[in-house]
TrEMBL record:
It comes from Paenibacillus glycinis. The keyword Electron transport does not apply. Its EC number is 4.2.1.46. Transmembrane segments: none annotated. PROSITE patterns: ADH_SHORT. It catalyses: dTDP-alpha-D-glucose = dTDP-4-dehydro-6-deoxy-alpha-D-glucose + H2O. Residues 4-305 form the NAD(P)-binding domain. This is dTDP-glucose 4,6-dehydratase. It is an enzyme of class 4 (lyase). SUPFAM superfamilies: NAD(P)-binding Rossmann-fold domains.
Length: 342
């Protein structure tokens, strides 16, 4: 199988590249990433440069001219991770989110349709459903009710993907996951940010009262779910992916401080984010029942593994903190140049 993975230098995308290479060594993987600030080519440094079954191409999914020859080279399936995903940035710069997440997805759909791609998997988010109260779970039939420019742009992209199935008969699936955590996550997100701050004995900024609730999913469990959807997902179906690990932000931060032996006095409450959704929680019964998915990382194991990874990979953290990884990224052409390995 020839896979195109978009956004494969980002957090979840790079984890998925590593996962699929280990699970399916005979597959060919074309990794396409624009290497924006959240794309880090060093996430893929362990991939053998001479491996003929892996290629990296630096290209922007919005750029049809750059993407066209990649589809012409032959693609069996697209797994679409590439997106702007940080809510705070979407509040400050919503236009970037609209063009990347909506226009970029449309460009991929058009090219996939024109070149007979067999499967298109849209990797989305539970944020498209909006906010829950104190009880209840998001199901696949929950109405879309996004509350930020980020989640609105992802909802729009999801609807485009659905429309290409209904109108053109494309074999598509949409996955909507809860909050991921694990290796290679850019430290603007809660868990790696708090680990980095705590390791340096710096204040840990917590929005508002810290009681916003998220359902946490270890990234490798997310990868295994996407793997099942890629190979066994029924045409046109949406699959929610969640860990049933609801924690308040304060609980997450406290766990990190305790694991690192740091005092709770490092916690600093800051003004709440605009439009901050109070609670997310996923009902993942459909993917469990229909596809047999089972997460392997309970929260306690996953968070400990994540903390240990960031401690063991201090050099990676330093590259991100100083921006040195951007210089490494810039060593790759922006003209759709194909590169073996990384």
């Amino acid at each position: 199988m020839k896979l195109m993975i978009t956004g494969g230098a980002g957090f979840i995308g790079s984890n998925f590249v590593h996962y699929m290479r280990k699970a399916y060594p005979s597959y060919s993987i074309l990794n396409v990433d624009a290497l924006t600030y959240a794309g880090n080519i060093t996430n893929l440094a362990s991939i053998e440069p001479a491996d003929g079954r892996y290629r990296f191409v630096r290209a922007d999914i919005r750029d049809r001219a750059a993407m066209l020859p990649l589809f012409e080279s032959g693609v069996d399936a697209v797994i679409h991770f590439a997106a702007e995903s940080h809510v705070d940035r979407s509040i400050a710069q919503p236009d970037v989110f609209v063009t990347t997440n909506v226009v970029g997805t449309h460009t991929l759909l058009e090219l996939a349709k024109a070149h007979g791609v067999s499967k298109f998997v849209q990797v989305s988010t539970d944020e498209v459903y909006g906010s829950l109260g104190a009880s209840g779970l998001f199901t696949e039939s929950t109405p879309l009710s996004p509350n930020s420019p980020y989640s609105a742009s992802k909802a729009a992209a999801d609807l485009l993907v659905r429309a290409y199935h209904e109108t053109y008969g494309m074999h598509v699936n949409i996955t909507r996951c809860s909050n991921n955590y694990g290796p290679y996550q850019f430290p603007e997100k809660l868990i790696p940010l708090m680990i980095a701050q705590a390791l340096q004995d710096k204040p840990l900024p917590v929005y508002g009262d810290g009681l916003n609730v998220r359902d946490w999913l270890y990234v490798e469990d997310h990868c295994s779910a996407i793997d099942l959807v890629l190979h066994r997902g029924a045409p046109g179906e949406v699959y929610n992916v969640g860990g049933r690990n609801e924690r308040t932000n304060l609980e997450v931060v406290t766990t990190i401080l305790e694991a690192l032996g740091k005092p709770a006095s490092l916690i600093k409450h800051v003004p709440d984010r605009l439009g901050h959704d109070r609670r997310y929680a996923i009902d993942a019964d459909k993917i469990r029942t229909a596809l047999g998915w089972q997460p392997q990382f309970p929260y306690e194991r996953g968070i400990q593994a994540t903390i240990e990874w960031y401690i063991d990979n201090a050099a990676w953290m330093e590259q991100v903190a100083t921006g040195a990884y951007l210089g490494i990224n810039e060593g790759h052409s922006t003209n759709g140049e194909e590169l073996g390995g990384s």
